[in-house]
């Protein structure tokens, strides 16, 4: 459904406006000793690290503004012939508006007055509610895994680590699926992440795409409410800025190591688990950050790389069938095993002969079941409960790289660009060859330019590109085509990313094989263009901008691609159709009598496209010294995805009729699709010939 959002916000504040954005703003007013406004004053803001200078003039109302400023330390200076020069040092944070007012005194330009300011306890420049986490806290506070998002939990009105990963854990996997942040009581999927002013949010589950190293970050801000009209898309905003290089070379080399030496042993639930050595654990994170000048006062760089290596063993208990049962010898079973091949039914009575001595002949064991036993280990302890302890070695390898370049073209124009790459390879084993495998590759590019067009007009342009490849599947994916080896009737050949073991459930025992979920492979891309124009006219500060975003959502995946089979013991353990656990259920498996089987026709292919647009206008009017009126108007158009393949359908099933045919056509389902032809063309699916189909000419060939 088309979704348009039109928002008008009116704020009465006690000072000048925030032109809220990914960067920051320095603004203020210039007066003389009598309190009269002074126009034509040259105001400069000099970055202490790069010596980059932004220059402007106070207008007829004495107001000046420097929007789109990089966070950092600045020296703001006001100069006018016949008055003393006044300067003040300020620290500008991400998305902060700092107000620096000047009072000029009669004197000469060579005379300088330094003003020492104290940061106000309450921000009065705007009504935005948020928390800035600056570089010192990011770098110096201990972070488990060096994940800076852990610091978001320090912000007011934020809840963290409150739930499981949900569907993202089954279909996306990895650490990003387990990041739980609820901001302002919103759902965890309602967060929007940006990095250097461009999108950093996966369109699938609204998780972050790239998680930069903490050493590459300048600071970030968590916004929890009352935003400027410039912001949209989500209820909560997490906006992050990377470091820029300066005129001084600075760098770090780091190594963080953790192991099992001081870890206690896990609780032993069985004697077999107690006999094992303490599970090994090694965790290393290491890398470097280096920044400095390429061309003094002109070109600067910041480079960061971080590696992550995690090796950990898990020791888990399973309940497996006895070793003798695997050969068909159920003589230890006290009950009776019936031979389904001898059964007959008279009325509601089922009669079967028993297997002599509860022995299943070897030639009766189904060949597919025999092959599947390779993935179902024999027990290593007596009994049939917790009789096997699996030692599972988890492997996590991650690498990420960020390269940022800043270029000061002139006092009127500055450029910045960044390229980031990340890779993640994880294997989480389970019982035997049925764990999960995660592979992802991320490429992110952004370019930005801030240009002063006139002393009162500034333009800010940004371009962003995200490429997010993520495949979350089974341990045997791309390694071994087990389903083809098994030769299960009716199962078509599946692609390498879906390779694995069918899901086998045996009532009363630990199942084996892979989960019925996945694989899910995403090859998503996002292109975006952002432009903002800020200008001052009299006591009004205007800002207008637009954002165009192109989404390519490409996914291949499905449930049950390898099949799922359930065995509940009804065939060999019951004459009444009641469920029978353990020995009869395993006997059903050996004979191939399944209670339930599920299989997808093929992997679903999704190729969705969308072009989103948003536009906004703000006017901050300083009516008098103690009152500011802040107006905002925003329009968002977020259309539904379009299906590139033209096979997307919307079904309408008005009635649940049983049996065929249904003669009343008004009770038939309706399928509305885009494109032309039959939506199932090229797929192994056909309708029952008894189902009548018709097309409504009013919609051309779109209604089936």
Radius of gyration, in angstroms, nearest whole number: 33 Å
List the domain count as a whole number. 3
Q: Determine the number of helices (DSSP H or I, runs of at least 4 residues).
A: 8
So what's the overall shape?
Answer: elongated
Structural class assignment:
mainly beta
Mean pLDDT: 85
Instruction: List low-confidence stretches.
Output: 1-21, 697-704
Helix content: under 10%
Strand content: 35-45%
Distance between the termini: 21 Å
* Strand segment count: 36
Largest sheet: 13 strands, antiparallel
Which features does this protein show?
single chain, 704 residues, mainly beta, Immunoglobulin-like, 13-stranded antiparallel β-sheet, 8 helices, 36 strands, elongated, disordered N terminus, disordered C terminus
Short précis:
By secondary structure, the protein is mainly β. The strands form eight sheets. Strands 1, 18, 19, 20, 23, 24, 25, 26, 28, 29, 32, 33 and 34 form a 13-stranded antiparallel sheet that branches. The chain has a five-stranded mixed sheet with strand order 4-3-6-7-10, with no helix packed on it. The protein has a five-stranded mixed sheet with strand order 11-16-17-14-15.
What would your notes on this structure say?
The chain is mostly beta strands. The chain has three domains: 21-125, Immunoglobulin-like (Sandwich), CATH 2.60.40.1120; 131-317 and 391-561 and 601-632, no CATH class; 646-704, no CATH class. Helices cover 6% and strands 45% of the residues. Strands 1, 18, 19, 20, 23, 24, 25, 26, 28, 29, 32, 33 and 34 form a 13-stranded antiparallel β-sheet that branches. The protein has a five-stranded mixed β-sheet with strand order 4-3-6-7-10, with no helix packed on it. Strand 28 (520-537) and strand 29 form a beta hairpin.
